[in-house]
């Protein structure tokens, strides 16, 4: 379900796949070759959501933002870079994720957290508000802690994971086209 909030509709590139059970509301932009899978809820109502290219938001994830206020005039939008894999049942709230990131299943990334490029966040991790995760590391735990540098194969996998989901969304789009 894709719908407006105060007259603003999500903006989707032609190559994007959004599952029919996902809910996208308001000021959301999805870049080329991105995908949003079953039961995702994304609300661009009190701020905006920007999702880069070749990024996948997997089943049951929740995307939201922080409203603008007197204490925080800009609020915190949700900004997700290119080639990001957001695992099943992840919660992202008013944070910024760079490029080539894997967010493990069930992780939570909170307001004003900043995740630099080339990071893996382990499943079930909690990234607290205002935390900055440095590029090139694995982070695990609740609250999250830097565990170790990523290996060369893990760094390569970040891009592979995103490309795997581009192929998968292309299969889904082809099947829906052939059903018409």
From TrEMBL:
InterPro entries, sorted: LbH_gamma_CA-like, Transf_Hexapept/Carb_Anhydrase, Trimer_LpxA-like_sf
Highest taxon listed in the record's lineage: Bacteria
CDD domains in alphabetical order: LbH_gamma_CA_like
Protein name in UniProt: Anhydrase
Species of provenance: Pseudoalteromonas phenolica
């Amino acid at each position: 379900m894709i719908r407006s909030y105060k007259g603003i509709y999500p903006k989707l590139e032609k190559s994007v796949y959004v599952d029919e059970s996902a809910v996208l509301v308001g000021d959301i932009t999805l870049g080329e070759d991105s995908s949003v899978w079953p039961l995702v809820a994304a609300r661009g109502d009190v701020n905006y959501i920007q999702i880069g290219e070749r990024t996948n938001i997997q089943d049951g994830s929740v995307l939201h933002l922080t409203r603008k206020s007197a204490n925080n005039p800009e609020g915190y939008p949700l900004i997700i870079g290119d080639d990001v894999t957001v695992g099943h049942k992840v919660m992202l709230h008013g944070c910024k994720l760079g490029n080539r990131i894997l967010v493990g299943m069930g992780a939570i990334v909170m307001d004003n957290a900043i995740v630099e490029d080339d990071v893996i966040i382990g499943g079930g991790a909690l990234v607290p508000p205002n935390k900055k995760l440095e590029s090139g590391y694995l982070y695990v735990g609740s609250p999250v802690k830097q565990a170790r540098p990523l290996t060369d194969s893990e760094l390569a996998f970040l891009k592979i994971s995103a490309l795997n989901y581009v192929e998968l969304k292309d299969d889904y789009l082809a099947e829906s086209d052939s059903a018409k």
